[in-house]
Amino acid sequence: MACQETENGRRKCERYWAQEREPLQAGPFCITLTKETALTADITLRTLQVTFQKESRPVHQLQYMSWPDHGVPSSSDHILTMVEEARCLQGLGPGPLCVHCSAGCGRTGVLCAVDYVRQLLLTQTIPPNFSLFEVVLEMRKQRPAAVQTEEQYRFLYHTVAQLFSRTLQNNSPLYQNLKEAVPS
């Protein structure tokens, strides 16, 4: 989740999660908050228990608290932390990953693009003709206005560059003699 319930005095998102000691009934679903943790100053992790009829399962929710609508966060670090944490949590259960902001365009698009590129890096399937522009273009075929503003697009480029840099640093033994192999 990349928004707050209210931003600049305007309602951006309905609270669909329970608060402490306040179970939430949403249609046939009963939702209770089992744990809330501040992972960073900007990211909150909630563990919810969702019950439908007699079946109950945990649901994890990550909320980025300080990403301005139509704007960008002050740093890529927390966004990368959030995407990594989401994927880590997803591995704990059978459910899909759901990403949203207020309209599902700008902030959601940036998070989805970062996650997509991260998955390409982890699976070592970056195509030789990789283009972040093409990634966003493909996303916009499925969700118009994904990565909504020029500022968000620049932030995405910066974040992906940081992701590549981290990946190369983690694989440094593979690349430590690269300078020697490149002709002058």
From TrEMBL:
<dbReference type="InterPro" id="IPR047170">
    <property type="entry name" value="PTN12/18/22"/>
</dbReference>
<dbReference type="InterPro" id="IPR029021">
    <property type="entry name" value="Prot-tyrosine_phosphatase-like"/>
</dbReference>
<feature type="domain" description="Tyrosine specific protein phosphatases">
    <location>
        <begin position="77"/>
        <end position="154"/>
    </location>
</feature>
<comment type="similarity">
    <text>Belongs to the protein-tyrosine phosphatase family. Non-receptor class 4 subfamily.</text>
</comment>
<dbReference type="GO" id="GO:0005737">
    <property type="term" value="C:cytoplasm"/>
</dbReference>
<keyword id="KW-0378">Hydrolase</keyword>
<dbReference type="GO" id="GO:0004726">
    <property type="term" value="F:non-membrane spanning protein tyrosine phosphatase activity"/>
</dbReference>
<dbReference type="InterPro" id="IPR003595">
    <property type="entry name" value="Tyr_Pase_cat"/>
</dbReference>
<dbReference type="InterPro" id="IPR016130">
    <property type="entry name" value="Tyr_Pase_AS"/>
</dbReference>
<keyword id="KW-0904">Protein phosphatase</keyword>
<protein>
    <recommendedName>
        <fullName>protein-tyrosine-phosphatase</fullName>
        <ecNumber>3.1.3.48</ecNumber>
    </recommendedName>
</protein>
<dbReference type="Pfam" id="PF00102">
    <property type="entry name" value="Y_phosphatase"/>
</dbReference>
<feature type="domain" description="Tyrosine-protein phosphatase">
    <location>
        <begin position="1"/>
        <end position="163"/>
    </location>
</feature>
<dbReference type="InterPro" id="IPR000242">
    <property type="entry name" value="PTP_cat"/>
</dbReference>
<dbReference type="InterPro" id="IPR000387">
    <property type="entry name" value="Tyr_Pase_dom"/>
</dbReference>
